[in-house]
Amino acid sequence: MVNEWHGAEAVSTKKEKKLIKHRAVKGYRHPALDKSLRQFRTRREAKVIAKLREAGIPVPEIFKHDDESMKIVMEYISGRQLKEVFHKNPKKYAKEIGVILGKLHAADIIHADLTTSNMIVHPKKGLYLIDFGLSFFSPKIEDKAVDLHVLDRALEAKHYEHYPDAMRIVLEHYRKTYHLAQPVLERLELVKKRGRHKQHEGS
Q: Do residue 45 and residue 112 come from a single domain?
């Protein structure tokens, strides 16, 4: 059985227990620029996932990546998206998210699309983080704060019945896991204020 998913950046195909991610040509870009960008992003995504596995973060294993064909062959994580089951045990999942994000930022990696759609609950191995197409390396406090803000907005929008308690638990365990969390959490409050200010201006 073969399943295929089309994203903004790539096409992902499931074959048995593997996921093949291919960055397709973007016809609106100059061919040389398009190839360079796709090679860079393929290479970066593979490096991010490898670094996360080294840090003990539950992410798919990479079996192969090829800069020329713009393909990454990785482990397919079976299970359900967290967004589908979060309501069953929000405190447990919020704690797990906080620990994972603490380790993520301790490794100076920004996911850049932190939502419960990009987390899979494996039936035996627990919570996995997936989809690193937008991820990048950064030690910057601002980048980490914005990463958390994306999750905050996602929890508020998708799981409003458990918000803000779930986010409070996420940040509690983020702080316990990441020894440099405090300045990030302080910046997060500023990022939230900026967001509210922009909303006020637009209303």
A: no
Alpha-carbon torsion (42, 121, 138, 48), positive or negative: negative
For residues 149 and 133, what is the distance between their CA atoms, to the nearest angstrom? 18
Q: Is the dihedral of CA 57, 62, 67, 71 positive or negative?
A: negative
* Nearest of 131, 102, 133, 104 to residue 117 by alpha carbon: 131
Report whether 72 contacts 42 (CB < 8 A). yes
Q: Residue 30 corresponds to which tokens in the numbers above?
A: 């100059």
Of 66, 108, 113, 131, which is the active-site residue? 113
62 near 133, Cβ under 8 Å? no
Q: Which residues contact 196 (CB under 8 A, 6 or more apart)?
A: none
Q: For the chain, what is the domain count?
A: 2
The pTM (predicted TM-score) of the whole model is 0.92
What is the DSSP secondary structure assignment for residue 61, as one 8-state letter?
P
Residue pLDDT, tens place only, 119-141: 999 999 999 999 999 999 999 99
Q: Is 19 helix (H, G, I), strand (E, B) or coil?
A: strand
Secondary structure (3-state) at 177: helix
66 plus 85 within the same structural domain: no
Q: Is 113 a catalytic residue?
A: yes
